[in-house]
Amino acid sequence: MSKGDISKHDTWQDVGIDQRISVVQNWLDAVQQAVGLRPIIYTRQNFIEPLLGAGITSLATSELWIAHYKVVTPRTPSTWASWTFWQYLDSGNVDGVHGNVDCNRFNGSQEDLQNFTMT
Predict the structure, then answer these.
(1) pTM score, two decimals?
(2) With contact defined as beta carbons under 8 Å apart, do 74 and 45 qualify?
(3) Does domain 9-71+78-116 have CATH number 3.40.50.300?
């Protein structure tokens, strides 16, 4: 698999469902080993379970960044009890930025966010 974006269905055409979890897990492990931090899993609310099947429970050691629009609270895949980041809008506006921007929320306090980041 040459593409890094697992959120595209065509990325997975040639990868059997029984191999997909190991592909994702190997990538997560490689990134963690290289940078010393566990990557965050970013997915749409209705994408990861059908794509990866029952084996996604092994991914729960990663934080979840969920994209779910037009809702008051995002629905998360069953593997995660909660979300860390929520992309609630993909057409926001920010002064000084031309075009649409993604809008996200962190599930915690300012102090929680500071503790979560590397700085």
Answers:
(1) 0.84
(2) yes
(3) no
